[in-house]
Amino acid sequence: MDRVYGNRLPTEYRWGVTALALVPLVALLAGALAGQVALLPAFALFALGVAAVSVYWAGGTTISADDGLVRIALFPLWRRRIPAEQIRSVRVEAVAPIGREWGTRGSLRRDGEIFIDAGHSSTCVAFHLHDGRVIRAGVESPERGRRIVESLARATGR
């Protein structure tokens, strides 16, 4: 199973953040090329801004599996690798949205449950582990969640 996006940040958010971040940086770089500000610091700020926007564009919940190992991630904030034998069940569940663009709610260490999401999901793929912990990854729709669960079953042989 290849890396599958469960949910992405909405496209309008990604373009909005890109414009808000890069327009002033392009103006700074233009000022540097015109000799109004130092070129090296302006170029360094521009490069950092482009890198930050690239990370934001790549953000989303991803789920993949191969050779008895399931990978769940919210790039660049959170990731876990779980051996398939530690998973008791995988199912699609309804969940309350996080209430912000992306992030986590809960803690595996403190609460025994975590919900990772990008994009205001109200549906998730829930991984119930044998030790009682639960990892929920936001997905864009119940149909998408069901396709992911079916792919995971094929990839892990369960």
From TrEMBL:
Taxonomy, superkingdom: Bacteria
UniProt keyword list: Membrane, Transmembrane, Transmembrane helix
Spans traversing the lipid bilayer: 12-33, 39-59
Name of the featured protein: DUF3093 domain-containing protein
Species whose genome carries this gene: Dietzia lutea
